[in-house]
Amino acid sequence: MRPREPLRRAPGARRSRAADRGGAARRARRRRCRARAGTRAQRRADPLLAPRSRDLRRGARRTPRRACRGARRRDGSPLPVIRIDSHDALDLSLYRRIVRDGEPVELASTLLGQVDERRAAMLRALEAGTPAYGVTTGLGYMSKREIPPTDRPALQRSILLGRSVGVGEPLPHEVVRGAMLLRLTGFLSGDAGVSSDLCRLLAELLNDGWKPYVPSGPHGAAGEVIPLSHLFQTLVGEGFVLEDGERMLARDAL
What pLDDT, in 10s, does the model give residues 71-103? Predict the structure, then answer.
């Protein structure tokens, strides 16, 4: 019998000890930062995307999230915190400071209160029977079909995951961070009807250097749908993120 050859790692599978320590430290810091937010189910984006956990249905008290602190320049001095108190306050200078330079953001409580007020108005309209495309109805040729309330969270999740069909190399991290920031400022207008928890989570992930794995193509007719689906599925523990240049499951990184 021929002696067995020793198993070999696939090319690129070996990681340096320094990279392992760096990734472990980053994940530990992320867990400490999220510990203030309560259970994992509380951290997972919006109830329309992820069904609410039992403790939330029982009315457990939520602990407000706060952005991770401690971001520093190369010389060791702390980065200034950019306070966002209006959804239209973002300009090119602030965009570059947040996206390129990594300066942390903080959301004004009054602005988050306005987001919750707009969301409450939307929920009242839904409870009154007002149809909403893609929320209380199906999509496309099924837009006339009403979705039962018990199936609506699953519909939102399937819409998100069903469009995560991109392929190719990942988009640059700066592009993905820019998309996260622009969606955050759009959500802060209140027009999307999202919760303030989702806005806090996006700000927290921006501050923490969250790196969703977003394929670079193809994008089709509605060019933003596929990349945004890949980006936002990571908030509910689906898809992949990048840690130290390597791809890992988002559910393991949350």
Answer: 556 666 677 899 999 999 999 999 999 999 999
Residues involved in catalysis:
133
State if pTM tops 0.90: no
Paired strand residues for 107 = 84
The listed CATH number (3.50.50.60, 3.30.2010.10, 1.10.275.10, 1.10.20.10) that belongs to domain 47-55+64-253:
1.10.275.10
Q: Which pLDDT tens digit goes with each residue over 239-252?
A: 999 998 899 999 99
Region at 209 (left for phi over 0; alpha for psi -120 to 50; beta for the rest)? left
CB-facing half-sphere around the CA of 172: CA atoms within 13 A = 5
At 99-128, the pLDDT tens digits run 999 999 999 999 999 999 999 999 999 999
